[in-house]
Amino acid sequence: MFLNTREGLALALPAAIFSMLLFLVPVGILLSEAFRSDLGWSLSGYTEFFSKPLNQKVFFRTLKLGVLVAGSAAVIGYAAAFCIVNLSPANRGRVFGLVVLPLMISPVARTYAWIVILGRTGIVNDAIVGLGLSDTPIRLLFTETAVFLGLLQLFLPLMIISLVSAMENIPRDVIPAARVLGANWLQVFFKVILPLTKEGLVVGGTLVFTGALTAYITPAILGGSKVLMLETLLYQRVNVANDFVSASVIAMILIVMSFSANLLLKRIATARK
Q: Which residues does the UniProt record annotate as the domain ABC transmembrane type-1 (predicted)?
């Protein structure tokens, strides 16, 4: 396309300068605070952070919910994507549009909808009390379950979109051929569908996992102070405690977790069978 590489570099240079000045440099300065102490450069910020039981609990809760949300999204996403790619072109477009539609709605509005569903006077509690399963409403908000449901609903479309894109590249005759050769649906999934859609799973898993780790609105609204996660703890450290060192440590932990998840998924996807 270009006569030489200089032309391509010249076109990419403005975007590179913009990203470096307005993103990489400020983030680098912020993250450098995580390695500073009164005595110079050290890892004392990390040892101090993980020495506190509350921080340990918040870290493992964030990791657990990220894995659960990504795993659940993968299971639901594969089923939904398989159904979508086997629809007629007209119906496929309509259903795919319904999958994309939630992404056009503000995450704040989508999260507040769960208050209507899970609140003490919400739909779920009205049904529980109406069916006689409980005499009083059950506390469903400000629990890990509420945060899990909110995050899953928030990021599930990203997994479905990634898997639909991957499944559309599977040859039409591959799955029927496997069934004719005697493979059951479980074998078809693990031996045919999964290997051919690994790239889509890596992309979707990375988007969902990192999104669940770094989302702030949903944990703040549905979890509050009772279900702290790293991102809500980061907000408290900056805006309440004015502790930028701890905030930088948390930010670095989130970045490392996100990159580690991507590398792990890529390693799994490229591993030899």
A: 59-265
Instruction: Give pLDDT tens digits for 86-128.
Output: 898 889 889 999 999 998 988 899 999 999 899 888 899 999 9
The owner of tokens 């029927």 is 176
Largest CA distance in the chain: 76
Is residue 40 helix, strand or coil? Answer: strand
Tokens of 267: 């390693």
The span from the CA of 78 to the CA of 191, in Å, is 14
The closest alpha carbon to 111, from 13, 30, 216, belongs to 216
Distances (CA, A) of 143 to 120, 121, 213, 221, 260: 13, 16, 17, 11, 27
**DSSP element (H, E) containing 237:** helix 230-239
- Taken as a whole, the chain contains a residue count of 273
pTM to 2 decimal places? 0.87
Per DSSP, the residues of 171-192 read -TTHHHHHHHTT--HHHHIIII
CA 48 to chain centre: 28
Angle at 122 between CA 117 and CA 128, to 5 degrees: 100
